[in-house]
Amino acid sequence: MHAVSINLFSLYGYCSGELLNLSVQKFEDFLKSINCECAKKKDAGDANVLKTVINFSVVVFEEKVISVVIPTIDEEASIGKVVERLKQSLREAGEEFEIIVVDTNSRDRTREIAASLGCRVIVEPERGYGRAYKTGFAHAKGDIIVTLDADASYPPEAIPELLSVFRKENLDFLTADRFSLMSRDVMNTTHRLGNWILNLATLMLFNVKINDSQSGMWILRKDRLPELDMKSNGFPFSEEIKIKAAKRLRFKEVPIRYTTRLGEKKLNTWKDGWNNLKFLVKLRMSRELRTGK
Ligand SMILES: Nc1nc2c(ncn2[C@@H]2O[C@H](COP(=O)(O)OP(=O)(O)OP(=O)(O)O)[C@@H](O)[C@H]2O)c(=O)[nH]1
Ligand SMILES: [Mg+2]
User: Using CB atoms within 10 A of its CB, is residue 292 exposed (0-12), middle (13-18) or buried (19+)?
Assistant: First the structure.
């Protein structure tokens, strides 16, 4: 969190403690209404009456910065559109933001397009969806991190509304659910079945009831990351982060409108589906989650 502390003024007065407390309360309420916080310090004072000195130091919270992190491999067909839509949506919402593209060995124009649109392009030479996110998170300057695929399947236009829920409900982790609002033609049957099995496994192994354990669109507080202690470097990163967030943090799932991706998918339905299932079993057996936390 970026905070600026200003020592605003000191109150020095001869009045009853009660009266003073009332004024202080009123002042604090006012500060809250203008996004400030009061750290008050009582220096001296008599129990009933007389001399009381209060130093007000006011903490002014800077506008929070959003870091959008996008992993990419050969996504030239879509990265430009995703970034343009993101910029428009976040600008219209009055958000201060940065966009970080974490690229692994793209052989097309992905990096060039992202850089030309003002993104910070971070090169992560090691393969892995989870690894790309770990690298991106480490570079994020914002308090709040937003993630999505580069393939134009998740709607950047939904982010302001999701952020509003995230803030209003004081969440630590929000995940976007693709299935509640999804039309039939967006995902093939095999993919749907795979997702259903993984959701069921998540419920049975961890008692985490979630509609979409594999969604790639999340909002999270950066300062909560250490509590998640992420292990996976591959595609299971997505289910791992949700299970741990659901168990340890203030967590919510919110529906979004998902569409078919542009360009080639990087996920291998059978191989990665099987790996994701194996990862869930391994995670359940691990000492870390054996206690159910
Ligand atoms: N940097 C990096 N990005 C990756 C890696 N693997 C996948 N990605 C990106 O991560 C995002 C998710 O990958 P997708 O292929 O879309 O996987 P998916 O969303 O599960 O599959 P689809 O439903 O077919 O889109 C995309 O933006 C990919 O380009 C990786 O090893 N490194
Ligand atoms: Mg995708």
Answer: exposed
